[in-house]
């Protein structure tokens, strides 16, 4: 019982630093020496240099991934611009088709009033069907290509960086976002 009391008294902070500081009996001095020895071992083993090297390597990897993502984005923008040009060309073509149908209707009016009604109805319907089908086809192609490019780019970046659970969640979110923007 007496040894427990001595142990408790010797462990109290007020008695820990009694006596001269540069004594092996002073726990503050022992803790300081242990800490300095620990720091010395870390420096001797070059741990700070290793940590900095690992951080630099990680930063370079992230920088490379960002550059790749920028390149993929620029490529996707180029593809999108190409499809937008295609859509404008189709719209111009459809305008020419409508103008051509109207001109033929005017020529048919000179022949007879009865023929113009039936002829114009058929040709306008055909032109509208061509416009609708051409517009639907181009829209499908643009949407399908944009989806393929976005999914491929997202898949490449995500596969390299994410865990399986995070990959699945991010892919689902990206697909939903692409679908809502294209519709």
Tally of helical runs = 6
User: What is the element string, with H for helices and E for strands?
Assistant: HHHHHH
Structural class: mainly alpha
* Rg for CA atoms: 39 Å
Average pLDDT reading: 82
- The dominant shape is rod-shaped
- Number of E-state strands: 0
Would you identify the regions where 5 or more consecutive residues have pLDDT less than 50? 1-12
The termini sit apart by 83 Å
* Beta-strand percentage range: under 5%
Largest sheet: none
The percent of residues in helical segments reads over 70%
List keywords for this structure.
0% strand; single chain; mainly alpha; 183 residues
List the helices and strands and how they pair.
Elements: H1 2-10, H2 13-16, H3 27-44, H4 47-111, H5 113-161, H6 164-182
